[in-house]
Structure formats: C-alpha cells, structure tokens
Amino acid sequence: MAPSISIGTAAPSSSAGVNKKSAAGVDEAELLRRRNAELEREVAALRLELGAARRRAETAEEAEERLCVQLGDAEVEALELARAYQAQVQALAVELAAARGALAAR
C-alpha cells in the first residue's frame, strides 16, 4: 500500500515552525486589515467626489434653466421690438406715400 499524502498544511515539526506560521497568519491578517482600511478610505473619497459631482450637475442644471428663461425673455423682447419696428416702417411708408401724393398734386 502506498503512503498517504496529505493535501493542505503539514503539521510543523518544531515549535519554531508554529511561530512562523502564526506570524505569517498575523501578518496576512494585518495586511488584509490594512488593505481593507485603504479600500474604505478610497470608497469614502469616491463618495465625496461623487457628491461634489452631483452638486456640480445640479448647479449646471439650475444655470441651464436660468439661461433658458433668459433666452425666452430675450426672444419675446426681440419679437416685440421687431413688431414695433415693422409698425414704424409701415407708418413711415404711409406718410411717404401721402407726401408723394401731395407733391404730385401740385
């Protein structure tokens, strides 16, 4: 019969081996804690960045709304000015026609 081979960790042959394994386990656990803390800091920083980006987007949306209102007001004013100008041109055309008629009658 063949000797059995154990898969996994072999039992240490001395107490020094136990200390190394324990130290390695502690080191690995400490590395995991440090990595976890680093990831938590990164997540917190990303959350802050996301919050800032959301505030900037809200500010941009509000500015866009204000600009749309201002554009609408400017369009209304431009239309009113164009209509007033057109009315003035028509009044001047009538006045010119009357003046030409008066000159022709002389």
Structure description:
- There is one protein chain.
- This protein has 106 residues and is mainly alpha-helical.
- It contains one helix and no strands.
- The N and C termini lie far apart (142 Å).
- Residues 1-19 have low confidence and may be disordered.
- Strand count: 0
How many alpha or pi helices? Answer: 1
Question: Which strand-content bin applies to the residues?
Answer: under 5%
Distance between the termini: 142 Å
What sort of overall outline do the alpha carbons produce when their principal axes are compared? rod-shaped
Task: Sketch the major β-sheet.
Answer: none
- Helix and strand run: H
**Uncertain spans, ≥5 residues at pLDDT below 50?**
1-19
- What's the assembly state of these chains? single chain
> Structural class, judged by helices and strands?
mainly alpha
**Helicity range:** over 70%
Mean pLDDT across all amino acids: 85
| CA-based gyration radius | 43 Å
List keywords for this structure.
106 residues, mainly alpha, 86% helix, disordered N terminus
List the topology elements.
Blueprint: H1 15-105
Short synopsis of the structure:
This protein is an all-alpha fold and 106 residues long. It has one helix and no strands.
